[in-house]
Amino acid sequence: xxxxxxxxxxxxxxxxxxxxxxxxxxxxxxxxxxxxxxxxxxxxxxxxxxxxxxxxxxxxxxxxxxxxxxxxxxxxxxxxxxxxxxxxxxxxxxxxxxxxxxxxxxxxxxxxxxxxxxxxxxxxxxxxxxxxxxxxxxxxxxxxxxxxxxxxxxxxxxxxxxxxxxxxxxxxxxxxxxxxxxxxxxxxxxxxxxxxxxxxxxxxxxxxxxxxxxxxxxxxxxxxxxxxxxxxxxxxxxxxxxxxxxxxxxxxxxxxxxxxxxxxxxxxxxxxxxxxxxxxxxxxxxxxxxxxxxxxxxxxxxxxxxxxxxxxxxxxxxxxxxxxxxxxxxxxxxxxxxxxxxxxxxxxxxxxxxxxxxxxxxxxxxxxxxxxxxxxxxxxxxxxxxxxxxxxxxxxxxxxxxxxxxxxxxxxxxx
Length: 415
Hints:
Elements: E1 26-31, E2 43-46, H1 49-54, H2 59-65, H3 70-80, E3 86-91, H4 97-102, H5 109-115, E4 122-126, E5 135-136, E6 139-140, H6 141-159, E7 165-169, E8 194-197, E9 199-201, H7 202-206, H8 218-227, E10 253-255, E11 259-260, H9 265-273, E12 279-282, E13 285-290, H10 312-329, H11 348-367, E14 371-378, E15 392-398
Parallel strand pairs: 1-3, 1-4, 4-7, 7-8
Antiparallel strand pairs: 2-3, 5-6, 9-10, 10-11, 12-13, 14-15
């Protein structure tokens, strides 16, 4: 018997969402006086400048207190876009960057990460010091001593299954570049999850006074990072022009020493080589871009072809893979599986099943053009009877990045 409707089309069921979201969710800890509508030590979610201003954080708040709080938040949303989730935490102005990153009592950076329930993918630490700065290795000693603490913070977060990158405001840079710490060669430290921003919008800073004038625009960097794909260099020329002529933003790049780039031009290549992040211009290209997406570590390629997270993009790519793989495999914890009755080892079917789970998660990153390739490898000797641990290796090939183009040009009589 036929259905007289002739053709019947119904909507198919929609399965689980395979598009990973949340890559742009960020956090910021800022030392500050208490604004009118936000108590210090309170974690708050904001999505735009209307939310920010409702807390009493306004341009007037910055001007009256000689601080850069609204500035960092405004720059974040200018680059990241309105609607992007940002967790903020204001703490007492006397709090040091070392204390924020070390956070022994989980009341500063760790508190922000905990209350965000693992959502934060990148966090920035900004300060508004009130006293004179003591310098060490070309930067405030508080910034220099915070690098190891920030790496410890990132490892703490990773061990709790919410990996993230850490941006430090390298305010009040002292220089000169040849006497400044080489972030690519720190003694006994490879801070792969930490980056130092020591660039500033010079024209904006020139309208400030005191310590506020020596800001580094870490809010701009965090906003750029939030907007970027996980495998994208924040210094990409094509995508991330920091200049906004209408808002008079980033017309003149400078360093947090409150010097224009043109005044320290000879130092810029050295700072690039040493792994600092600052704004710069290119002859023939309008606007200002970040110079690169460095982290505070040497560049490592080992004998087995493993590459370390020497760029923010590599770190974010690896972090995303870890999150996706954990989410895919977590439901399989405590499930039961057959073993070979003669050897007690895993049969091929179980191995292929778990490799398929991992490969599917990595395949999603491939299809979204976040990694070049990925592979899951199950240890066939995993003991599920006594040890009850499935041992897995994941191999990820990241996207490459062009940071320089070399070529030659000649005048020829013919081609």
